[in-house]
Structure prediction request, 119 residues.
Amino acid sequence: MYIALLFLVILASDVWKALWFATPSGGKQFGIGVGTLVLAANVVFLSFYTLGCHSFRHIVGGFHDELSKHRVEQVAYDCASCLNRWHMRWAWTSLIGVAFADLYVRMCAMGMWHDWRIV
Prediction:
């Protein structure tokens, strides 16, 4: 679970890097392209899948066989439970999202697709 959370941080940093485009003068400029949106959607889908996992509910719920009495942990447990209701849907969505993100990055890197810039 902890490794999965680390991967989410790494993927989120990739989205942050995708927000900055190189300028002709050698600097960087903020922008959003289709690839940025694809990578961001990938992080969202994987986050919903990971944060709705049974083991994550156990971690945020207090690590015991009973729910925590702390309000913050109760809210976190309830949020994870809400995501858990559609855990299988998030699994399939994240699987398709990862496959499409990989395909999109690969096709852009090969020059077969062009990453359209929106902003």
Notes: The chain has a mean pLDDT of 92. The radius of gyration is 18 Å. The longest strand covers residues 20-22.
